[in-house]
Amino acid sequence: MSLVSVYIPTRNRSALLRRAIDSVLAQTYAEIEIVVCDEASDDDTPEVMADYVARYPGKFTYLRNETPQGACRARNRCMEHARGTYVTGLDDDDFFHPQRVECLVDLYQAHSPSFACTRFKYFQTLPQVEPMRDRTFSAAELAKAEPLTLPGMLYANHAGNQVLTELSRMRELGGFDEAMPSWQDYDMWIRLADRFGPAVRSPHLLSFVDDDRSRARIRNSNKRAEGSQRFMAKHASLMSPDQRRNHRNIQYVMNRERPPLGDIARNVSLGGYKSTLKVLIHKFFGVALG
Q1: Distance (Å, whole) CA 239 – CA 143
Q2: What confidence score (pLDDT) does residue 218 get?
Q3: 156: Cβ contacts below 8 Å, ≥ 6 apart
Q4: Farthest-apart Cα atoms in the chain, separation
Q5: Confidence class of residue 83 from pLDDT cuts 50, 70 and 90?
Q6: Residues 87-100: what's their mean pLDDT?
Q7: Domain parsing of the chain, residue ranges
Q8: Which CATH class is domain 4-210?
Q9: How many whole angstroms separate alpha carbon 50 and alpha carbon 194?
Q10: Which is higher by pLDDT, 265 or 48?
């Protein structure tokens, strides 16, 4: 059984970090190491991690930055210390379904993709996702997979914020781009697919993303729009004209712009029709759909 490294960047969220870590410890896949990079937390995170390290000898690697260096650098630092054949990530406020890692390793070994991922669910309260978290899937259900191609991924990030791939591949590509203010995950998945071919995705909800609006999040800030612009510039050579129009519409939506009808007409995207519809809805009804 191949070792899987799970990296977790964290800062001042010790209670949520416990939830994230406990979801990894509850995985049905046994060979897992957990690498945590603490971004200069001033709460009880060091004590929390000391407790886990003591209770699970050899299971954890705990890294600490004395000054915040950003989640992207924290992820890369985790991967520098990881020992697994495979690697996947988890944000400190999110958590896994118990069968997630098992599913992804099996899909990766069965299909030899650039990466494997699952569908994910945003939530604001635990009761919204507890029935999904507690469901048990059969081997036949976990074996189901949907293809993710580079052209499809260039329209939208269908993989979400976490995938499983070989650690050597992430290192070969230099890890996450620390110059990107946001969209580092999307950028990484595009580079993996461009270098190593199509990916696969489980149709099941096996990852849960905390969407608590009371906490600052990148997707609610202007960093998201800046990241989108850099993403377009970085991958323009891979994109078709229709894909570039789609991303222009995504930028309209993120910036809460209501462009002239002529601009909307010039940027109609057939493959990215959802972004076109969002621009039209915001233009005429003032409703900005994220």
Answers
A1: 31
A2: 40
A3: 246, 272, 274
A4: 63
A5: very high
A6: 98
A7: 4-210, 240-285
A8: alpha beta
A9: 40
A10: 48
